[in-house]
Design a protein that fits this description.
The complex is a heterodimer of chains A (292) and B (163). Chain A is built from ten helices and 13 strands. Chain A is an alpha+beta fold and 292 residues long. Chain A folds into two domains: 47-175, Uridine Diphospho-n-acetylenolpyruvylglucosamine Reductase, domain 3; 181-291, 2-Layer Sandwich (Enolase-like, domain 1), CATH 3.30.390.50. In chain A, helix 8 (229-236) packs antiparallel against helix 9 and helix 9 (242-252) packs antiparallel against helix 10 (263-291). Chain B is an alpha+beta fold and 163 residues long. Helix content of chain B is 36%, strand content 15%. Chain B has six helices and six strands, in the order E-E-E-H-E-E-E-H-H-H-H-H. In chain B, strands 3-2-6-4-5 form a five-stranded mixed sheet, sandwiched between helices. The longest helix of chain B has 14 residues, at 109-122. Chain B starts with a strand and ends in a 5-residue tail after the last helix. In chain B, 48% of the residues are buried. Classes of the chains: A alpha+beta (292), B alpha+beta (163). Chain A binds chain B through residues 1-8, 12, 16, 25, 28-29, 31-33, 35-39, 41, 43, 45, 69, 91-95, 97-98, 191-193, and chain B through 1-7, 23-28, 47-50, 52, 55, 61-64, 66-69, 71-72, 74, 115, 118, 133-134, 136-139. Strand 1 (4-6) of chain A pairs antiparallel with strand 1 (2-4) of chain B.
């Protein structure tokens, strides 16, 4: 007989992760496509610690079990529009009521709808675990240890992250940048309930005709979301105009052909979206210089 | 902390009555409803959250019951079409769906009706675009959707004040 667990708080959840072999279950929308009736699930949705949305001086902090629908309807924090845009395009209402941001990350699908946006916004994840040193001291309150990793580092491949078995992804941290231009496109065979053939997120911050920050992230065209700091740096320092940058991305992107789309379609559309975005960025830079 | 298994069972509220499922915690809620509680109004279409035929309301929110492990809903309130059909709101939807010929084979209908309930609870006077959004998780292979949009619109008018 297999047990499942409904912890009351984060401490209990972390203790279970340390002591037992359990499968963290947040929204369940990916797990339940291939359910294991006998699996020892650790149900997380009810944990208050994973359901908060707040801001600090530097970050938007989103609990890992916050659903897409909760992100779209909450009014406490003014989240970046581009993130909400991506959430609106996830599946349809019944799945947006279940699926969570933390789940989208831990599932680590190359086609995860929010991932290109989170990459473009330089998001990080906060992981928690019980500190092993005090695990067996019953008189001590167990301390929770944390580590923060950039999302780009956390996701390592198709459905692969560097979460250790005893760790839980508890928060997503999004720097409060002041992007003057953001751009998101999901290309799929229909508007709702479709997995992306490809997706693109762009973010730029232009101040007085100076490009301060730039991010281009491509989804569904590699084993993880593709972002290239070197190309971005060359655009920022003026070595690449939009066309040269598009050529650089043409050499970088190596999508595959599968049941959803073809390599050449994916690449062509990605490059078109990148060109469109970079042209808009350049227009903002030019307008800023004129206005100086 | 609560430990749940087939011996403890999983207590929840089903159509306003307290029940206890004795299925394994990882079992799909869809299968629990149909096989354990014999509530076959909830339909099984795809088992991957694509079609919406298995949609039910959990705490008033529309979800695809195929993607819900029964262990995850302990102490929560599930409403299926069998529970909803006893309501005044259902009577309005029933009439509007019939009047606008929004039902043909009927397989998607329980999910469509519950999606409509969720939609009207949030937007009592939805625009056609909001209706399409609200029903976007439910596939219908018969009607071509226009009849459904009209049925929801008609229900919103005739049932004004109920939502």
């Amino acid at each position: 007989m297999v047990n499942a667990y409904v912890p009351a708080d984060l401490g209990e959840a972390l203790r279970l992760l340390q002591e037992k072999t359990v499968i963290p279950y947040a929204g369940g929308t990916d797990i339940m496509v291939h359910p294991q009736a006998e699996a020892a699930y650790l149900f997380l949705r009810q944990l208050p610690e994973l359901n908060q949305i707040c801001t600090t001086d530097q970050y938007f902090v989103i609990g890992s079990a916050v659903t897409y629908q909760a992100l779209l309807t909450q009014t406490a924090v003014r989240l970046p529009d581009i993130l909400l845009q991506a959430c609106r395009q996830v599946a349809a209402p019944p799945i947006r009521n279940l699926g969570t941001l933390g789940g989208n990350i831990c599932n680590a699908s190359p086609a995860g709808d929010t991932l290109p946006v989170l990459y473009a916004l330089d998001a990080s994840v906060r992981l928690a675990r019980l500190e092993p040193a005090v695990r067996d001291c019953q008189n001590l309150t167990p301390t929770i240890g944390y580590r923060i990793l950039p999302l780009r580092q956390f996701i390592q491949g198709v459905r692969r992250t560097c979460r250790r078995p005893e760790e839980l992804l508890i928060e997503i941290l999004i720097p409060q940048t002041h992007d003057t231009l953001t751009y998101y496109e999901k290309i799929a065979s229909r508007k709702a309930q479709a997995i992306a053939k490809l997706s693109f997120a762009g973010a730029a911050s232009v101040s007085q005709g100076q490009l301060q920050r730039l991010a281009l992230a491509f989804g569904s065209v590699g084993v993880t979301v593709v972002r290239d700091s070197l190309i971005e740096a060359k655009i920022i320092n003026g070595s690449y105009d939009p066309e040269a940058a598009v050529q650089a991305y043409a050499a970088l992107l190596r999508p595959i052909t599968d049941q959803r789309s073809t390599a050449s379609y994916r690449k062509t559309v990605c490059l078109n979206l990148a060109r469109d975005f970079l042209t808009a960025v350049q227009a903002q830079v030019t307008a800023g210089r004129r206005g100086r | 902390m609560q430990i749940i298994n087939v011996q403890t069972g999983i207590p929840f509220i089903l159509n306003d009555r307290p029940v206890r499922s004795l299925s394994a915690p990882g079992t799909r809620l869809l299968d629990v409803l149909r096989q354990e509680f014999h509530l076959t109004g909830t339909k099984c279409g795809c088992k991957e959250g694509e079609c919406g035929a298995c949609a039910v309301l959990i705490n008033g929110r529309l979800v695809t019951s195929c993607l819900v492990a029964v262990g995850s809903i302990a102490h929560q309130a599930v409403l299926t079409i069998e529970g909803y059909r006893k309501t005044e709101r259902f009577a309005v939807l029933d009439e509007a769906f019939a009047e606008m010929a929004a039902v043909q084979c009927g397989f998607c209908t329980p999910g469509m009706v519950l999606a409509t309930e969720a939609l009207l609870s949030e937007h009592p006077h939805p625009s056609p675009e909001e209706i399409r959004q609200g029903l976007s998780g439910n596939l219908c292979r018969c009607t071509g959707y226009q009849a459904l949009v009209q049925a929801v619109s008609t229900a919103a008018q005739k049932g004004a004040g109920l939502w």
